[in-house]
Each structure stands twice: as C-alpha cells, then as structure tokens.
Amino acid sequence: MAGFLLFSILAVLSTVHAAPSCTCPCTCEEKAPSTQHQYTVQINEEGTIFNQVTDVDRENQIVVFHVPQHNIVTANQFMLDYNTGLAMTLFPDLNVCFLSHMPDDMLTIDKLEEGLSEMANPQARSTIIKRKKEETYERAAAQPVKDRSMLGDQMAQMCEKYPVYSTEVVPGASIEQDGGYPYA
C-alpha cells in the first residue's frame, strides 16, 4: 500500500546517518522563496527503480510526497500538514482523498528535510535497509467528510475537487515481519 511505502521511507529517513552508503543519484532544487525546497530521490523498491519528488514548504509547515505508480502502488500525493497534525492522501486516478492524523512518532519537519537533503545529495551515496516490515491497515468512513474546516488551506486546495474520507487505524490489524531487504 502507498502509505506503507511512504511511512517506510519516513521511518528510515531517521536512520540515514547510521547507514551512509546507497546508490541514490538524487537532486535538490530550491524554489522561490527559499523556505520551499523540492527533493528528487531515486528509490529502488523490490527491484523497481523510480524517482519520488518531495516538496517541503517550511514557511507553511507542509510536506508533499509525489509517489508515482510502481509495482502495486497507485500514483498518489501524500501531504503532511505540521500545523494541523493531519495527513492526506490524494489518489487522482481514483478521484478520492483519504484523511488521517499524522502518527505520533512522525519525524519533525526539520529531521525529515535533513534526511531528504542527505538522500538528495548526489555526492552522498547511502543504502537504507529496513529490517522490519510493518503494514498497518486503515478503514475509511462510509460517508465523505462534510465539514472540511479542520483542513489547512493547502490540504483543502489539494482535495477541493474530490470527496474526502476520514480513516482510522484498525486496532490489532497490523502485520510486522522481519524484512532485511533494502530500501534505497
């Protein structure tokens, strides 16, 4: 699931310092103003290589991961809004958005950008090895969210043309297994 891949990347970004040697030709482009950055990271997921673009807007405390279609993952955009503590996944091909709360153990925007910056540095080669694979299952509400007032401006704009369904983690429905396979 797209969320699994994204959270795997987020989880391992905190360990980039501990594993500094990957095959990751990446770039970082600065947007105007200087509080906005775009990182392009080459990812090798189970033999499929793709570029994932991530926009970090420090001024508005927003991070958007642009996840391309690959393997069994549908193309999506995943937004973290550090102001509201909400996360939104937009599946444009499916014409739907899913709203959730950011996990309690989410990296700070500083740590997240630091990890992305290191991964996007073409001089630094690093391999990220995810030792445990964990999938958490979420269920969507039966009806779309009617009152969107809790959404920040960027999140509301991202999903203004789509129904938004709130999600919640299904208690006791997570799978954890030793993986030992690399995420690069």
Structure description:
There is one protein chain. The protein has 184 residues and is of the alpha+beta class. It has one domain (2-93, 102-134, 176-183). The chain has three helices and nine strands; from the N terminus they run H-E-E-E-E-E-E-E-H-E-H-E. The protein has a nine-stranded mixed β-sheet with strand order 1-2-3-4-5-6-7-9-8. A hairpin with a 2-residue loop joins strand 2 and strand 3 (48-57).
Q: Can you summarize this structure?
A:
The protein has helices at residues 2-13, 109-120, 153-158; strands spanning 27-31, 36-45, 48-57, 62-67, 76-81, 86-91, 96-101, 128-140, 164-183. With 184 residues, it is α+β, with helices and mostly antiparallel strands. A 9-stranded mixed sheet has the order 1-2-3-4-5-6-7-9-8.
